[in-house]
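Re: your question from the hallway

Yes, I did run it. Sequences:
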Amino acid sequence: MSAENPHRTRHDPHATPDAGHGERVGVYVCHCGHNIANTVAVEEVAEWAGEQPNVVVARDYKFMCSSLGQELIEQDIQQLGLNRVVVAACSPHMHEKTFRSACQRAGLNPYLFEMANIREMGSWATDDREAATQKAKAQVKGAVERAVRQQPLEPLYVDINPNTLVVGGGIAGLTAALELANAGYHVYLVERDSSIGGHMAKLDKTFPTLDCAACILTPKMVDVANHPNITLMTWSEVLSVHGYVGNFTVRVRKKARYIKEDLCTGCGTCVEKCPVRIIDQNFEVGLGYRKAVYRNFPQAVPKYPVIDTANCTFFQRGKCRACEIVCPTDAIDFNQKDEIVDLEVGNIILATGYEQFDARRVPQYGYGRLANVFTSMEFERMVNAAGPTAGRVVLRDGVTVPKRIAIIHCVGSRDKNYHEYCSRACCMAALKFAHLVHERVPEAEVFNFYIDIRASGKHYEEFYHRVLSEGTHFIRGRVAEVTDAARGPGEEGQLIIQVEDTLIGKQRRIPVDMVILMAGMESRKDARQVAALFGLGCDYDGWFTERHAKLDPVVTMTEGILVAGACQGPKAIPESVAQGSAAAARVAGMMGQRVMKREPVRACIDAASCSGCRICNTLCPYHAITFHEDRKVSEVIPALCQGCGACVAACPSAAISGAHFTRDQVLAQIEGILWDARQPEVLWLEPQ
Amino acid sequence: MRYGYYPGCSLERNAGAYHTSLMAVAAQLGVEFAEVDDWNCCGATEFIAVNRLRAYALVSRNLALAARQTNGSNGAAKGQLVAPCSACYLNLSKVEHYLSQSPALASGVNNALAAGGLSYEPGSVRVRHLLDVLVNDVGYEKVAARVRRPLHGLRVAPYYGCLVVRPGFQGRFDDPEYPTSLDRLMRTLGATVVDFPLKAHCCGGHMTQISRDVALELIRRLLKNAADYQADMIVTLCPMCQLNLDAFQESVNGLFGTEYRIPILFFTQLMGLAFGLSPAAVGIGKEFVDARPALAKIGAAAPAAAEAAPKRKPRRGDQSLPLPQMPEEEL
Amino acid sequence: MATSASLSRTSDFFREVVAEAPVDPHLEACLQCGTCGGSCPSGPDMDHTPRALFAMIAAGMRDAVLRSNTPWYCVSCYYCMERCPQEIRITDVMYTLKRMAIKAGYSAQTTAPKAPGFAQTFVDHVENYGRSFELGLITRYYLSHRPLDALKMAPLGMGLLKRKRLDLSPRPIRQIDQLKAILDRAREIDAAHST
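Structure:
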């Protein structure tokens, strides 16, 4: 070792290889800057590790994952003839690949490498230095014991199905689908609603550029519908997912529209003539009406309507058939049934979006009780030229133009009673609303009630300044209540905003005639079920969990399942689009390789020991075990096996072993972890 | 059903009508309230302002006595202590909650209790408000079955005040911002319930003694709100609320030049009347603002159900926007 | 949850307030959003809103905080605590500040000078009888603290008497000695703690 080498070494050049096996282990304990070293006595762990059987060298180093750290391992493999490597550092999710590559570069089979996670499972979990150090030693010992029993393995190569499933037809899903389709890959786009476009299709203008949402969104929707590489499946839901990265089988239910898509021209006559008119709780968020046969909006993609059987007079009472009578192409089919379709795809991108927080949950703001309290999405529909008021800003009576409008920020967000997180997009939407009111009702006064204005984004702060210059009142204070209980003549017939103006330090009551609640974003009500269906994780708030918040935001812990847009956390349009593109790029990058390297962690059945009981056949979640009737034995199909170990544990004859997780490897690791556990005292229970 | 009962100082005299009526109603419903023997004051809002440990010890003596007397023998529901006064309810449940939260506080309190030969094990008493017991344990159906003289035609503003619904130290039985259980109880009795946005706002509490004008303004807001919605009376479930709204109504009129004559009754008084009891049996006549003119309306006007407007269908040319969908209200 | 480590970074006065509260009020979490000040029914009459008071506590402005009328104008309606987005136990803090103001001898200098006197009179009555005695309370409080206002209260007292809603003599509890022993012991424990 040269004198300038920053790392310390406990190296006994005379150590003889273990007589029995000749395993020569190198142990590397990472400081992870202060992350581990502040809590674990890393030098002590390394020194102790150097004294363990089979360990030829043990070092501690500031950042093992750095190129210098990796070179250290490579040098030792070559110079000291190491044939096993143990790194005690972070989670294998983080850096197992890094160190396996280092081993491979130095000529060592990567499966002779083992990782001990002393950060997430040690230093980050406690402040107790002594206990963390002791645990780190146990983890290292376990890893060493396991490493010496590991066998070299070779990866498997399997073909990747080049098709991709995108779930969700909002702006994130549309972007992902188009990117992949343009790159030449086939995409199935499954959307639960009757048309694509998601929340963005409901908006009028988008911040901060004030682009017309329809102008920038509808071309994309049409592209998706017409793209030769995209199979668009609206009014459809995923029922089940089987398989693994590269080869998923996805079962989808195409709900009956009761419209023959091959005959329907989208003329809209059926919608016009339908006698049933109900409040549209979905697209119009309760502010407008629709028919029992309907499209979300006239430019909906696809153009075919659907029949809402719960409200259709024919489905409920057996007569009417108005739509059938007026349809010029006989496209109405009351006998249509749901269809089940199986799709074969290599990757799945989830872009299932968000729901708006239900403002009824904050009773002090009066939504639902006070007619002229609106939610932000209701207001989006109101200002939309294609919305229920054709873009006129009016009170609930549909006629009166408001003169004083309050916009309340952070409804359901930044509040431990509801959601602790910031919903991120609402401040900018609130500024956009203020601007739109000034544009549509120049004489109206607008009051924005905020805790902090969050305008971090390209041209966002400038937009804030623009709205300030338009004469919007900004009152810093979270609104305490909205009430119609007037205290005096000046307040009669008004909605009163009661708030502390924190910049003055005084309570104020501000009469207005319209209130807009900036209700935040929350995860979809069925987010947890969807996560379970696709085998990924959700955080406390129900947002899908990405592999790494900063470095791997669109990939999940489940290979082949990606996320994009607001299903992963609150997002505005620009971030959702960026994630849609990013997810598509990740998928395209993988498919560019044509074949995929797969972990050789596989189960294997010893035919001689197999009793043919077939317990494993039904247990295998991947249908990877086949039974040979002639020989009465089961066999694992390596390409399908995911190495989960269920069969290994269940086999009554112990005839199945899992490569890289053999019984003796696992038991030796356990023995190693328990190296300092005292023998349990034997208790003799004397009969009284 | 048998519960421990903590009347509190107000019900002994100033809110005697509350005590009389709740006992009469309980008898009708087959509920028995066994008064905690030799209970002491809960300390109101004042005691805690002067000394922390003494305030907790003061309340804990009651908890200790209640735990002993509601130990599950003699058929009483174990550890269930009913308080009809909102302030007593709050103080008893707050102290019980904090003793359970803080072992240090519990040991200090038990040290003090030992001087009187008492002890208290945190968690052994669950404090309930009278309204909670009547609507959730007895239930609306059983109440409805006792109604002999429905309060048809009487427009009431149900007033909850603060402490029954907030902050819910030992759990909640109603919404802290917009409670509805008393509304539903009043409808069960046949009364018409008016919208009363200030139903859970403050009556001024002890401010009448500290800053009279501040308190009178709080009372005025409530009276105005009830008057704006044409309530015949305000129904309350707390002696402090009743006293402030009733006894200070004249002072409010004097200070603000208003002419409010809104009677303030306890909800148990209306229950008793609906059950067919005589006004005297439920303590009517002790209020400052005479309730008799309002009570004379009972039965004079059409039943509440007939008043409800038929569901409006959107007419041609009607531009109004639909109202947000709200969960169906029961009853 | 405030850990001892994070508390050590706060002002002395901040730590004093936290220590005096029955359970940790989580004052350190305040966002200064003003929900408390906006919700307070007597907010307009306070010289500092609760929010402002919490900033002053964090800044260690002991004198100004303990002289403030804010805690004395608290009506214990719990709206602030219910609505606080950071779940701060605001009402507890108000009671805590009242006790600290009395202890520090500031209470008479607050801009709500009547409140501490009323609280003390009430406490004396409960300590003597075990229950509140309204006639005695009102009489003694007004005569000793606000003789000029006593006349204003007279009609109310007469009204209550006429309706048999006021007792003429206190009704002490039976085991008043037991209660006194308990309260005396509590006082001793408290005194031992604060020295």
